[in-house]
Design a protein that fits this description.
mainly alpha
């Protein structure tokens, strides 16, 4: 497509060169190429435009540039769809990661609940140990009382044995 456009541009330049040799360069070229200095006569432009070679070449160049524009637009649309597809893929990936994060968050919540249950069990064991300590202290006290009672009985037995020997 670019080659065809360049061929038409070269054809227009060839016709313009031919017109230049006839002495109408400044007038015809300022109309074909607007970036050239002004001051050209409309009369020479009309003659140049009346030239069927230039008219045909300009028409063909116009058709080629329109076709190139359509092809470029189609290519741009194709690339846009490709980018859109890739963005959708990334979006799906992000959603997948978000789902995994949500799963991890749920697992962390479960672990937190398990830790709280273990804390409760440890607290229950601590209270149980304290109860056993109190029971042991009570038992120690009871043992002392029993020891004292045995001592009293032993002392009384000893006194009784002494009185019976006398």
């Amino acid at each position: 497509m670019i080659v065809d456009i360049m061929v038409e541009v070269l054809t227009i330049l060839a016709v313009a060169t031919k017109e230049t040799k006839r002495g109408r360069f400044s007038e015809s070229m300022s109309r074909i190429f607007p970036f050239l200095p002004d001051g050209c006569s409309e009369k020479y432009f009309m003659k140049l435009m009346g030239n069927s070679d230039i008219d045909d070449s300009l028409d063909k160049l116009d058709k080629l540039t329109q076709e190139e524009t359509r092809m470029a637009s189609a290519e741009l649309l194709k690339m846009t769809h490709s980018v859109d597809g890739k963005v959708m893929g990334v979006d799906d990936g992000v959603r997948g990661v978000a789902g995994q994060v949500q799963d991890v968050r749920g697992d962390v919540q479960d672990v937190r609940c398990d830790v709280q249950d273990i804390r409760g069990d440890v607290q229950d064991v601590r209270f149980g140990v304290q109860d056993v300590r109190v029971d042991m202290q009570d038992a120690r006290g009871d043992l002392r009382d029993v020891g004292n009672m045995v001592q009293d009985v032993d002392d009384k037995l000893h006194q009784t044995n002494r009185s019976s020997f006398l």
